Amino acid sequence: MSRILPADGVEFEFTVPVVVIGGGAAGMIAALAAHEQGAGVLVLERDALPQGSTALSAGLIPAPGTRWQRAAGIEDSPELFAADILGKAKGEPDPADAARVARAVGPALEWLADRYGLPVSLVDNFTYPGHGARRMHGLPSRSGSELIDRLRGAVEAAGIDVLCEAHVTALYADAASRVHGVEFARPDGSSERVGCSALVLACNGYGGNRELVGRHVPELADALYFGHPGNQGDALLWGEALGAASRHLSGHQGHGSVAHPAGILVTWATITEGGVQVNTEGRRFSNEEQGYSEQAAIVLRQPDGIAWTVFDDRIAAIARQFEDFRQAEAMGAVLTADDPAGLARLMKIDPDALAATLTEVERLKREGAADGFGRDFAGAPPLAAPYRAVRVTGALFHTQGGLVVDDDARVLDRQGRPLPNLHAAGGAACGVSGSKASGYLSGNGLLTAVALGRIAGQAAASAVREENDR
């Protein structure tokens, strides 16, 4: 239960300068940044092991103007990236917010590589929808689990305290909305109180809270939730109770290609490299290239909420750089056949319908034409035997709306003034995707985790120094 309790007369068992709630990418990066600035830090994580939504993602971070891009001969800049963010979201996000994270993420990624040894590399063999340059970066396995493991290792090596199985249930604040400390519950039912000079909310959004999802994202109220169950909206509820402004609460990231029933993410490279989706009738039903986020609700509108992602061996070779795809193959979720008819039999759908669909797709590719849904097939490579297919459904990954923050990731009140000592990063802060799933540009989730995480940690440490100097 998320509560705000009066701080007057409360005694804390101990006090640390900076408390970070949440041990995902945003929280770990905030902790590293604050520690580097000389502040004492405590990370409170509700799970037995810090993972968060990061571990469930592909671990890919979009960043412009990096040394990895330059090595690959790719020209990019924060201005171009910010323009892509705003273009995908139809201008809904605040341009200052887009510019802030676009400027900050590249230096943050190089900092993580240089100072903490993260083996970052560029995804240079395909372009994600909506990105004007190849700017997606990741670790060797292209998995979020590797990313969070590396960050956790960096935090441990730095000697930063991380307290797991510590579920924060309340904040202690005064009448001026200054947070003086937090209360957290332990597995044995006991509770402890820790004081702080600055607090960073890095406990993501509310994707795991069915009530809030039903209120703000009703079209996905009954969808598979593919995020972390601990994302209960605590940061949003605490912030709003303290008078914070929130924005774009209906914004979210969905995904239209989660293997079903295996529950494994199937990379959208299966689509961008020339694959398509069909429903259980063997027919296409949308412009798949609009983006995987908005495709979630579209897939769920199909019979039984099911679709098939159809591609070929060439595309499968590209997809294998992602650990999730390799797991899907190992589990037998990826079907293979030498011709469309054989594939349709494995899929248990009408062979004639699938054959007709794929014949039409190949005609559009040959002619470089667009279909009735608006997908332009010009330049798309043809599909060739052996063919592949994965049974998928649509899912909610995480919410994108949240608390409004400034250039120092300080949470703002409804009049645009910063709350005294409260910062937010990652899914706890309002993202840059606007109010719709279609506004989500690939990587926007980890973009704000990395960029705002570092900003929040640095700013929290600075605030502590300033308080000590007074």
UniProtKB/TrEMBL annotation:
Keyword Flavoprotein: yes
Entry keyword Oxidoreductase: yes
UniProt entry keywords in alphabetical sequence: FAD, Flavoprotein, Oxidoreductase
Pfam families: FAD_binding_2
Membrane-spanning ranges: none
Residue intervals of the FAD-dependent oxidoreductase 2 FAD-binding domain: 18-435
A molecular function (GO) term: oxidoreductase activity
Domain of life (superkingdom): Bacteria
Any coiled-coil regions, as ranges: none
Cofactor(s) the record lists: FAD
The name this protein goes by in its record: 3-ketosteroid dehydrogenase
